[in-house]
Write a structure and sequence with these properties.
The complex is a heterodimer. Chain A is mainly beta. Chain A is 9% helix and 38% strand. Chain A has one domain: Sandwich (Jelly Rolls), CATH 2.60.120.1440. In chain A, the strands form two sheets. Chain A has a 17-stranded mixed sheet that branches. The longest helix of chain A is centred in the first third of the chain and has 7 residues. Chain B folds into two domains: 203 residues, Tetratricopeptide repeat domain (Serine Threonine Protein Phosphatase 5, Tetratricopeptide repeat); 139 residues, Jelly Rolls (Sandwich). In chain B, α3 packs antiparallel against α4. In chain B, the strands form three sheets. In chain B, strands 3-6-11-8-9 form a five-stranded antiparallel sheet. A five-stranded antiparallel sheet of chain B has the order 4-5-12-7-10, with no helix packed on it. The longest helix of chain B has 14 residues. Classes of the chains: A mainly beta, B alpha+beta. Chains A and B meet through α1, β1, β3 and β4 of A and α1, α3, α5 and α7 of B.
């Protein structure tokens, strides 16, 4: 006779999926608990964790080596999607990303961004509600508004925008659902049914001075030509 | 490896800590395994000071981040050997063991940290809850024979993490003899919030009652003589503020023991008072509700008495004793009632009902002591 057990029994016994590690020179918050740098240099993150940086940026290193640096006071939920690929749902603030592999999904302002391998850039959810971005290397594919939530990315949609580093003076563009800053708003182009259409954000938003300003929180650490500096640490968190 | 050993113009080795700091910079740049990367720098720091356990932990973390787990494991073993009393070293190693699925080792290290100092409790408990779903293993290996840690872990769970685990954790705590009155009361409160009054009453009886050994054995009212200042918790007295009534804990006038409840009435309206009460969980049966009341100059025709009533929307008993008014020495008030199935949550109240008379604003003082609900069959 088959014995049925509630799904929760298995869920409680199974080993959690490790998403990566989280480190900062200041405390970080994981599931409402303050994790202090004086106790450990880094903290493992598992599927479903709610995380926050506090008074300093915090670095999430995924298990396959991708780097996501959270601006201070930023908040996010970390999940995984198919194949254990990290999925980061940013609730507040902004992130720098620097990828080795294309295995990273970032949802910010209900817009899904998928950096390609070797991508470097910044995504930030402004208090105005606009999502700003700045790319210094590689490609960033955006799947548009309402493409994701705190549980999972939505189904792929055909209207994709691909961002790449712009020319001199155009470090990126601004993606805004409704009424973002003039000159820097990226809107999804109309696509032929059934086919994705990728365009370079530099081509449609090259004059997005607003985006450059909007990315100001990281402007000094992520440039179009020089890559990103993920290193705000001035002391070793391991110092006893 | 390109580490510049220059200091103040002379060629001399850098101290290990600056080298390690540089290693952390490389971690933030994502440079782990490059020739000038974090692993190389942490390795140099270890070579400079191999007796310092933090150096080994730094190197272990970097190796683990690079997926070189066997080498990382060696580093963490070294760090633990060099710093066996250090909670930080243990915590970093525990994090590594959690990541690599060596849960028993991680939990055992967690247990040693919990014994060493309480400051890391929440961080350790967070890892327990997030990294290992097996509560029995957490309790046996991660807490073990540490009553303090057991209690704080339960309080951690009570704060909203791991709700489903609370009942099992409580059972383990009770079995180990780690239960305390404050912990039991917190648990009973939570059980009431979760609408489990029967379980809450049992927990209160076993570990939370002020009248331990009497409560729910010969008297279904706890703190019946107001000997303890009421807390408002699950099955203790609740005193809500009411304009025109001052409620206090009196040590001067008592029927028995050392305290009673005192009500000073100076109402500007036709007082409807039921603001001092206690939840009671009653099985079906026949009971007597009783209490001792003394009054001094209590005006109007409506005095102070006791009432048993249902809670919330549940149809419950509605039983009232006679009341005492005017100036009377201690008088026992009582009423009998039968409660039919099922068992239910009720509330015993100290009451003053509104008067139908023209002169209906009560003034004066009443004392209440030794309230009881006793089973008659």
């Amino acid at each position: 006779m088959a014995v049925l057990l509630p799904a929760g029994v298995f869920a409680q016994q199974s080993r959690p999926v490790i998403v990566g590690t989280f480190t900062s020179s200041a405390s970080v918050i994981i599931d409402d608990v303050e994790m202090r740098p004086t106790a450990a240099a880094s903290w493992p993150l598992v599927e479903g964790d709610e995380i926050a940086a506090t008074s300093a940026p915090a670095l999430l290193t995924t298990t396959d080596g991708n780097l996501v640096t959270f601006e201070r006071e930023s908040k996010a939920r970390v999940k995984t999607v198919e194949g254990g690929q990290p999925y980061i749902y940013v609730r507040e603030g902004g992130v720098l990303f620097e990828t080795k592999t294309p295995r990273l999904d970032i949802c910010i302002g209900n817009r899904l961004f998928i950096p390609g391998a070797g991508a470097k850039g910044v995504l930030r959810w402004e208090k105005s509600g606009a999502v700003t971005r700045s790319m210094s290397a590689g490609q960033l594919i955006e799947q548009g508004e309402r493409a994701c939530d705190d549980q999972a990315p939505g189904a792929p949609i055909p209207n994709q925008i691909s961002s790449a580093p712009g020319g001199p003076g155009s470090a990126g563009g601004t993606a805004s659902g409704a009424g973002g800053p003039a000159g820097g708003t990226a809107t999804a182009p109309t696509a032929a049914p059934g086919g994705g259409r990728a365009i370079a954000i530099g081509a449609i938003g090259a004059a997005s001075a607003a985006a450059a300003g909007a990315a100001g929180a990281f402007a000094s650490s992520c440039t179009a030509s020089g890559g990103c500096n993920h290193n705000p640490l001035s002391i070793s968190p391991s110092t006893p | 490896m390109a580490v510049a050993y220059t200091n103040s113009g002379s060629v001399s080795p850098l101290l290990p800590q600056p080298v390690a700091n540089e290693g952390f910079r490389r971690v933030w740049e994502g440079k782990l395994s490059t020739p000038d990367g974090a692993i190389a720098l942490f390795h140099a720091a270890v070579v400079s000071d191999p007796a310092f356990p933090w150096r080994w932990s730094d190197l272990g973390d970097a190796l683990a981040a690079a997926g070189r787990n066997e080498e990382a494991a060696y580093c963490f073993r070294e760090s633990l050997a060099l710093g066996p009393e250090s909670p930080q070293i243990a915590l970093r190693a525990a994090n590594f063991y959690f990541i690599t699925g060596q849960t028993d080792r991680a939990l055992a290290l967690g247990a040693t940290i919990l014994k060493e100092l309480p400051d890391y409790d929440d961080m350790v408990f967070s890892s327990y809850v997030r990294m290992d779903g097996d509560l029995d293993r957490v309790l046996e290996t991660g807490i073990g024979a540490n009553p303090r840690a057991a209690r704080t872990f339960f309080q951690f769970l009570l704060r909203g993490r791991g709700e489903a685990r609370l009942s099992r954790a409580w059972g383990w705590i009770e079995q180990r003899g780690y239960a305390t009155r404050p912990l039991a009361r917190s648990w009973a409160n939570r059980l009431l919030q979760r609408n489990h009054p029967d379980e809450a009453a049992t927990v209160w009886m076993r570990h939370g009652a002020g009248d331990a050994g009497v409560y729910r054995i010969s008297n279904w009212v706890d703190n019946s003589g107001f000997e303890d200042q009421w807390t408002g918790e699950a099955f203790d007295w609740v005193a809500e503020p009411r304009t025109g009534v001052k409620t206090s804990w009196d040590a001067q006038v008592v029927h028995s023991g050392r305290h009673s409840l005192r009500l000073d009435l100076d109402a500007a309206d036709n007082l409807d008072f039921h603001h001092v009460s206690q939840r009671v969980w009653l099985d079906p049966g026949r009971y007597r509700l009783s209490g001792w009341v003394r009054t001094s100059g209590l005006t109007t025709d409506q005095g102070v008495g006791l009432r048993l009533t249902g809670t919330g929307n549940s149809a419950g008993p509605d039983v009232s004793t006679p009341t005492a008014t005017g100036s009377r020495d201690w008088t026992r008030l009582s009423a009998e009632f039968t409660l039919r199935a099922p068992a239910r949550l009720a509330r015993v109240e100290i009451v003053r009902h509104p008067s139908d008379k023209f002169d209906n604003r009560p003034h004066g003082t009443a004392w209440i002591d030794d309230v009881a609900i006793q089973r008659l069959n």
